[in-house]
Amino acid sequence: MMKTTKCPNCGQEITEEWMSKKDYCSNCGAKLAVENEKLVVVAAEETKQKPTKLWYLAPILFSVIGGVIGYMAVADRDKKMAMLLLVIGVVLTIIGVAAGLLILSNR
Ligand SMILES: [Zn+2]
Question: Minimal CA–CA distance to 96: which of 63, 56, 65?
Fold first, then answer.
């Protein structure tokens, strides 16, 4: 027997077969997910706007200083990205110093 479930957005019945292949309502197109064996509407838009990916250029261009500036700029919106910017800045600085020492020692 085919089990059906109702779309939480429009109330249209959706078969389990459809949901096993697609992750949106066949009637209204709302993005859906199964949570605790119930269909839920997945929020299409995030309420908190993520900082632009361009911030990744800061530690690449200005190494550790860019990393710190990037960290302070995005920390309140995206802690994970802020930490990543800091790490990129530090790592690039270490690589830069190591490369510099290697070039000097080869002279
Ligand atoms: Zn629907």
Answer: 63
How many CB atoms are located within 10 Å of the residue 7 CB? 20
* Cα separation, 60 vs 90, whole angstroms: 10
So what's the pLDDT on residue 102? 95
CA of 32 to the centre of ligand 1 (A): 9
Give the pTM.
0.52
* Interval between CA 41 and ligand 1 midpoint (Å): 9
- What are the angstrom distances between the C-alpha of 56 and each of 13, 28, 88, 94? 45, 38, 8, 17
Q: pLDDT tens-digit profile of 14-42? A: 888 888 888 888 888 888 888 887 778 88
- Cα–ligand 1 centroid distance for 74 (angstroms): 36
